[in-house]
Each structure stands twice: as structure tokens, then as C-alpha cells.
Automatic annotation (TrEMBL):
This is Nicotinate-nucleotide-dimethylbenzimidazole phosphoribosyltransferase. Pfam families: DBI_PRT. One of its GO terms (molecular function) is nicotinate-nucleotide-dimethylbenzimidazole phosphoribosyltransferase activity. Keywords: Glycosyltransferase, Transferase. Coiled coil: none annotated. The keyword Transferase applies. InterPro entries: Nict_dMeBzImd_PRibTrfase, Nict_dMeBzImd_PRibTrfase_sf.
Amino acid sequence: MSTEHPLDDFRALLQRMPALDAQAGGAARQLFETQGAGESRLADVAALIAAVTGGRPSMSRPSLALFAGAHGIARHGISSRRMDATLATVAACGSGDAPVSHLCAANMIGLKVYDLALHLPTGDISTAPAMDERNAAATMAFGMEAIAGGADCVLAGSIASTGDETVATALFCAFHGGDPAEWLPEGDHALRRAELVSAALGTHRAVLGDPLAALAALGGREFAAMAGAILAARVEKVPVILDGVTALAAASALWAADPAAIAHCMLADAPAGAGQRAAERLGLVPLLGEGLAGGEGTAAALATATVRDALALHAGFAAQARAATHHHH
């Protein structure tokens, strides 16, 4: 890692992303078109996975990476959620008792929880950087491990923690523009949160034009680690299913650097409020309807079934096409 500009390694990766295989994607969609299903969401999924992997689309080893972090901005009392709830979820995932644990078992999905120094909150972004660039780079590198172990689809989600919505809002404002109040969900603390986001954007005005530097200054460890995971998957031609507002904010940082950086991403379900706006900006259409899942990775786990169905159709159509050409010869 270069000591001078620690994030340069990741900037270099963004320059070296493999091109998508438009031919493979087109061929996959063509198979659906011959069956009159070319405009379906399932065709979109099969075509995306074919284009990303450059081969016959498959998903036999999906893996869910759940990231958890703690935020300095939480000290302003802007949320009813407490850190013990986050710790309890991390523990439940570890013991196999979390809702997402059951769904991962049922859908044959690997599960790994990245507990990112929950005892040590990041800097309070309203007055200071969340992380320096060296820390952000190390955290992104740690997140890249999500693709280790041969996962052929990465599900990226987070465990809710106090302040994460406020941090996501700051990132959405930085990368998509607009007023903090427009991005924040209505609620008890909306006004105070908007003030804090405005303060954060003012404090870090100098780096807002540099997406990775902005991610370090405004984000949190789980945001940086997730960005690392998404980028690693892009470079290694592994499709990603994003789950939740934190994932959308992490994806937004990469998108701001280069929209092609999230060309391998799908969205699990329609997030509420700000997440929906962000998804539209990123051009992501959810795989599931709203309200089906309960966050914290559950939507991504459910969405793998939709992806598997798309790939099963593709395999069936491909077999039919092969049989037909064989028959003609």
C-alpha cells in the first residue's frame, strides 16, 4: 500500500476494471427472447450475470457478507437504536440464531460477519473525518476478503447501528447532490440529523469531489469495507446483490468514481425513503417487492432464490436451443 496516498491502490483498481462481456449478456437475453421472456426481470438477471462473468451464468456458492460498524456521530443522540442491539445481532449471527442465519441455511448461502471495531466509533463526521485515508484504505482492503474462498455471488449487507442512516445521508448528498432534508426519512430526529449532515458536508467540503476521500471522511468502517467488497467483486468478475441503505451508499461512492464500477450489482429489495432515490440514481431495479424482508441481509438471502430461478430458466432455454440445433444437423 502506498504510504503517501493510501487510497491510490483503489483508484488504480478503478482504472483496471475488466470490461463486461456484452456478447455473453446479449446471448443470454437472446435465449429469453426466443421464449418470449426477453423483457422480464429474470432475463435482466441472467444477462447481467452472463455479462459480468463472461461465461455461462451460474451461482453455486453465494456468500453473504454482513458488515457492522460504530459511528462517532451517534453521540448526538439522533437515534432510538442502541449499540447493544447491534452487538446482539452480531452475536446472533455468530450463534446461528439471527433471522438471516435461518435464511442462509435454507438457501445454501455462506455467511460471514465483519465486526469492524464496534467498541471504537469512527470520528464524529460533523466536525472531524470518520477515518483518515490510511484507515479507510485498510478497511477497504479488509472488506475485499468477502470474495476470498471462491464465492461466485457476493451478497453485501450491514447490521444496523446508531448513526448509520445519518452517515448514509451525508454520502448520498455528497455523491448525488440535493439537500439533506430531502434524503432523510421523516422522524423524531430528522431536523437534528439534517443539521449534522449539513455540518459534515461543510466540514469536509474540500474532499467532496474525490469519491474515495469523501468515503473516508464522511463514511464509516462498514461503508468503506463494503465498498472494498463491491470493488473486489467487480475486478474478479463476481456478481453482487446489494441489501439496504448502507450498501447503496457504499455503492454510490464507487459509482461516483466510475459508474461502471457497479455494473455487476443487483439490488435485493426496494429500500424505503432515501434508499429508493439512491437506487434510481444508480439505475438499480430491486429483485423483490417492498416489505418482504426485514433488512440486515434477509432481503439479499431471499433474492438469491430469484437469481437461481433466472439461471435455471437460462439453463433450460440453453439446453432447448442446443437440442434444436443438434436436431437440425
